[in-house]
Write a structure and sequence with these properties.
Layout: E1 7-9, H1 14-24, E2 28-31, H2 37-42, E3 50-53, E4 63-66, E5 69-73, H3 78-82, H4 85-90, H5 92-99, H6 104-109, H7 112-117, H8 125-132, E6 135-140, E7 143-148, H9 149-152, E8 153-155, E9 158-159, E10 166-173, E11 180-186, E12 196-205, E13 208-217, E14 224-225, H10 227-233, H11 240-253, H12 264-285
Parallel strand pairs: 1-3, 2-3
Antiparallel strand pairs: 4-5, 5-10, 6-7, 6-10, 8-9, 11-12, 12-13, 13-14
The structure holds flavin-adenine dinucleotide (FAD).
Residues 29-37, 39, 54, 74, 101-102, 106, 110-111, 113-115, 117-118, 123-125, 161, 166-167, 191, 193 line the site of flavin-adenine dinucleotide.
């Protein structure tokens, strides 16, 4: 299918993009890499009358370290994330995640901001953002606000973004020194969305879990934290029994829908496996 007709805009500044959003209200959609929006338009699940391409706004790209925080422009592509020495050094979890997203064609155009703003529970960045405790900078006609990842994902394709707001930046605190991280993703084939995936940020002190955050992908209507599993691990030795129990608790907490990737029971079982795999790998990467 081809999309319904639309007017294409290519503003060269953030202010111009926001003015267009204000003028056209819910008749307008922002276009980033287009790898989620354009398929939806072709299927006519979305039919915006105005498409506002963010691609010419240079200020929305780039990766920098400010104090202990990594700041990533929303229009930074997955390919740029993969190629970033700064991320390889300070936030390897993000590089490991981007490597498992889709295929090289999608990663060349697809952006981290689009992946998060889309609100798709099958996208990989949202669960990773939850595990990392990220913040998102949202800019609209009345100014800027900063929203925690934990408050951003409200449901399937529903986020805290207002229709006249642009996500400009993703801010991620560097995990504490000595932390181990991992993104473990089960997919049917290269380029597929997750059947189940888990992001783990783990810190161990004197053999015990000093802190842990576990994010889950495609296992509920939106990305979620495995809070019961985190609570069971906290303060305890991270051994085989504790990891197995965390996997069981995470599996119990998730609410996946049945689809081509499997039924609910299978996905829950795979959630448990991915949590265990991510915990074991993160533990092996802890240096504290
Ligand atoms: C074959 C295929 C396989 C894929 N596999 C995966 C996968 O395994 N894992 C995964 O995570 N993703 C996957 N994707 C999705 C891909 O990563 C998309 O690129 C991503 O979901 C959306 O990013 P985008 O830059 O393309 O955004 P777009 O498609 O341009 O936009 C998506 C939505 O976000 C909004 N938006 C975009 N940028 C902003 C912004 N800065 N501020 C506010 N709103 C904004 C748009 O208005 C739109 O509603 C796949 C896509 C395809 C086609």
């Amino acid at each position: 299918m081809i999309p319904r007709p639309f007017v294409y805009h290519a503003p060269e500044s953030l202010q111009a993009a926001i003015a267009l959003l204000r003028d056209h209200g819910d008749q307008a959609k922002l276009l980033a890499g287009g790898h989620s929006l354009l398929p939806m338009m072709k299927l006519r699940f979305a039919a915006p009358e105005h498409l506002i391409d963010l691609g010419r706004i240079a200020a929305l790209r780039g990766i920098e370290l400010v104090g202990n925080e990594v700041r990533i422009g929303a229009m930074t592509s997955e390919r740029e994330i993969l190629a970033s020495p700064l991320l390889a050094e300070h936030l390897p979890l993000l590089v490991e995640t981007a490597r498992q997203i889709a295929d090289p064609q999608v990663r060349t155009k697809g952006t981290i901001g689009g992946d998060i703003a889309h609100g798709d529970p099958g996208n990989d960045h949202p669960a990773v953002m939850l595990a990392l405790g990220a913040h998102f900078v949202l800019v609209g006609p009345t100014g800027e606000r900063v929203v925690q990842a934990a408050d951003f994902f409200l449901g399937t394709y529903v986020t805290a973004l207002e229709p006249d707001e642009v996500m400009t930046e993703i801010r991620i605190p560097k995990p504490a020194a000595g932390s181990g991280t991992c993104y473990a993703k089960l997919k049917r084939k290269t380029g597929d969305f997750a059947t189940a995936a888990a992001a783990v940020v783990l810190r161990v002190e004197q053999g015990r879990c000093a802190s842990v955050a576990i994010g889950l992908t495609n296992l509920a209507p939106m990305a979620m934290r495995a809070e019961a599993a985190e609570a069971a691990l906290s303060g305890h030795p991270v051994d085989g029994a504790a990891i197995a129990q965390a996997g069981r608790l995470a599996a119990e907490a998730c609410e996946p829908g049945a689809d081509l990737r499997g039924d609910e029971d299978y996905k829950k079982a795979m959630a448990g496996q991915m949590v265990q795999r991510a915990l074991r790998t993160a533990l092996s990467r802890c240096t504290g």
